[in-house]
Design a protein that fits this description.
This is Fe2OG dioxygenase domain-containing protein. The structure is a single chain. It contains 20 helices and 33 strands. The protein is of the alpha+beta class and 673 residues long. It has a seven-stranded antiparallel sheet with strand order 5-20-16-23-14-12-8. Strands 24, 25, 26, 27, 30, 31 and 33 form a seven-stranded mixed sheet that branches. The longest helix is centred in the first third of the chain and has 15 residues. The structure holds 2-oxoglutaric acid (AKG) and fe (ii) ion (FE2). The site of 2-oxoglutaric acid has 11 residues, from strand 21 and strand 23.
Length: 673
């Protein structure tokens, strides 16, 4: 930038339409002053500090500049010419930071143009104040009370809810410190001076690193295991208790009462509970008709489920839902389990009782992940060459393994046809309860690479210099009530936004925790999958709206669903996704969640067991608001429960940054272009 020092300027100080030009030259450039970096001395000896914008507009003899000088200035200028849309795009060309200015020896007066203008006004009219004042670094460096240095590096005791509330979070509009602490230029620091995040070299790198970080967050949507235990089932009838494990030969007698008592299983189809043998062939017993001496908690299953699926929850509870019996020919086509409208309910546990069967694999598929198959029938088979030991395979009593699998309710799953034997399972709904100590929250162990990348992106002047949004399509589907709750808790911030309160599912909770921990305001958008496009719903439909929709059509595995016309969709949307979000969204993550079609609301969705009258699954995205570079703070250190607990970003500018790559207000300059 010192490239301009020594250059001539000519400025009009005339008033009332009368021109009065003064000539002068640029005598200094102060790199520590991003707002008024240039100092000019006029022919009468007066001095003035100028913005970059004004400096460019009063330069003279531009034609005489060397090619090198012109190239340097053009390059710098290019940073200011890009529109915010262009500059945020991954394809935007990398912008080179300006050259470092010569260090100024004389201390500058603290007062900026106001003081200068006052001096000048003795002889000439006051210099025009700089347009659109930007935050001064001096202001910016004020350390937010809610973000003490130590928090960034070390977990500290979590403030109580009331304490957390009493800590005022800086509103997004208040300029906070931008800490693009450039490692190469960092001054030797005291031991308490934790290094700030290292900015990425350009916006494209920041976006690509964010994508890598978010895609590398593993999907954890299921967990499974085996428990060696005998189980006794008692029907609420005079029939004898049934003991597992058993052979198929024993089952003929032992299961007769159970098979007689079980009733055909229905399933939910939109808001109706229906029987359809092309979708589900199974029988069942409700819990009021039997008791079973199996306790998933005592068997250690619930703690495994908690750690794998909801590590931010304090505990997990299982409610026995039903007993399912599938004989030869039994199956259940792909479905999601019924949304229950309870904010504690998150998934399903299936426990297969040890009696032999073939076929009947339980297959889970979730987004882009490879399908997971629980081939429990195979594991129940004799483990040795049975025909040399047993007269008949049906005499084989399986080893006492109870095989189980647990998954989130929105995970699509199916039971493939049973080809022989009896497939008997217990199903439970899984609920989560109280919040754990955030400092031991296992969720956070998976959040830090993304947090680190986000910190570096926020510290990068080239990444969303004028602000914008980071969009993330949730990997799971949610019930509207859950989404509304998460959204309001994120908006309330503070202790409310702690991950366990949001009740989001696993990886989504990881991402929300990262955004919240970085102090970015987050909102949720509801997405409707159209044929080719995704739409954002302006509002959720009400029950009476359903009367409007008419035509029947077949979607997804030929399940019946009511379809809507594009016009009907339009009346519930603000438009296509990119239009609604104003085009300033950088979507990160290549994972695509399952489609959530309009028709699922009232007509089309096929649920696990019974109809859902009040709830359905919504496809959602987080929209994290990124402030302009000049007013944002790049968090430093590691993410801990404290950060998520606090509304404020944990970031701290430990020192006045040496260098600011300040990008001035967007304006088209003709000069040099
Ligand atoms: O029996 C099973 O393996 C699962 C049954 C199921 O998906 C359900 O009941 O919703
Ligand atoms: Fe199911």
């Amino acid at each position: 930038m010192s490239i301009l020092v020594g250059k001539k300027v000519r400025k009009d100080f005339g008033t009332g339409g009368k021109q009065e030009f003064y000539e002068g030259k640029l005598i200094d450039f102060d790199n520590d002053d991003p707002q008024w970096p240039f100092q000019v001395q006029y022919e009468d000896g007066d001095q003035e500090d100028l913005t970059w914008e004004e400096t460019l507009s009063i330069l003279v003899d531009v034609e005489s500049f060397t090619d090198e000088e012109k190239a340097g200035i053009t390059m710098l200028n290019a940073a200011m010419l890009e529109t915010p849309t262009k500059s945020r795009a991954a394809s935007a060309p990398p912008k080179k930071p300006p050259a470092k200015a010569a260090t100024k020896s004389a201390a500058k007066p603290a007062a900026k143009p106001a003081a200068k203008a006052a001096t000048k006004s003795k002889t000439k009219p006051a210099a025009k104040p700089a347009p659109a004042p930007q935050p001064m670094p001096e202001q910016a460096a004020v350390k937010p009370a809610s973000a003490p240095n130590e928090q960034a590096a070390t977990p500290v005791p979590v403030p109580s809810t009331s304490a957390a509330k009493s800590v005022p979070a800086p509103p997004a509009s208040v300029p906070a410190a931008v800490c693009p602490a450039k490692s190469a230029e960092k001054e030797p620091s005291a031991s308490t001076d934790a290094p700030g995040p290292v900015p990425y070299t350009d916006a494209a790198t920041a976006v690509s690193e964010l994508n890598t970080a978010i895609d590398s967050i593993e999907s954890r949507y299921q967990t499974s295991g085996t428990v060696n235990q005998k189980v006794t089932l008692a029907l609420n009838t005079p029939a004898a208790a049934i003991s597992f494990p058993m052979s198929n030969t024993q089952a003929k007698d032992a299961l007769a009462g159970l098979l007689a008592a079980a009733v055909p299983s229905a399933f939910g189809h939109g808001n109706q509970t229906v029987f359809d043998s092309s979708v589900r062939v199974a029988k069942e017993l409700k819990p009021e008709h039997f008791t079973v001496d199996f306790n998933p908690e005592a068997a250690g299953i619930l703690e495994q489920v908690r750690m794998a699926l909801v590590p931010e929850a304090g505990s997990v509870r299982a409610e026995l839902h039903k007993l399912n019996v599938m004989d030869k020919g039994g199956f259940f086509k792909p479905h999601k389990d019924t949304p229950r409208g309870a904010d504690t309910c998150f998934g399903t546990l299936v426990v297969a009782l040890p009696v032999c069967y073939e076929g009947g694999d339980l297959v889970l598929s979730h987004g882009a992940n490879p399908a997971v198959t629980f081939a429990w029938g195979k594991k129940l088979e004799p483990r040795y060459n049975w025909y040399t030991v047993l007269k008949n395979k049906d005499d084989h009593v399986p080893a006492v393994g109870l095989q189980w699998g647990a998954f989130f309710g929105d995970v699509v799953h199916e039971v493939r046809p049973v080809t022989s034997g009896h497939r008997i399972t217990l199903t439970y709904t899984l609920h989560r309860d109280a919040a754990p100590d955030p400092n031991v929250d296992a969720l956070l162990t998976r959040a830090n690479t993304l947090y680190h990348s986000l910190s570096r992106a926020l510290a990068s002047p080239d990444f969303m210099p004028a602000g914008g949004h980071i969009g993330f399509e949730c990997r799971h589907l949610y019930e509207e009530s859950q989404l509304a709750q998460a959204e309001s808790k994120l908006a309330a911030g503070g202790a409310n936004a702690y991950a366990s309160k949001l009740k989001l599912k696993n990886e989504d909770a990881v991402v929300a925790a990262v955004f919240a921990g970085a102090g970015l305001p987050v909102t949720c958008v509801r997405i409707l999958s159209g044929e080719d496009l995704d739409y954002v719903l302006a509002k959720m439909p009400t029950k009476k709206d359903s009367a409007k929709f008419g035509s029947k059509e077949y979607i997804e595995n030929s399940f019946r669903a009511m379809a809507v016309t594009p016009e009907e969709i339009d009346s519930y949307t603000e438009g296509q996704l990119s239009e609604v979000t104003g085009g300033d969204v950088e979507w990160i993550g290549s994972y695509k969640s399952a489609a959530s079609k309009w028709a699922e609301r009232y007509f089309g969705e096929y649920f696990g067991n019974e109809a859902s009258h009040t709830e359905f699954y919504t496809k959602a995205a987080f929209m994290a608001e990124v402030p302009a570079f000049s007013s944002r703070r790049a968090p430093a250190g590691a993410l801990t429960g404290v950060h998520i607990h606090s509304k404020a970003a944990p970031a701290v500018c430990h020192k006045q940054p040496k260098m600011h790559w300040w990008v001035p207000p967007r304006r088209k300059y003709d000069l040099f272009l």
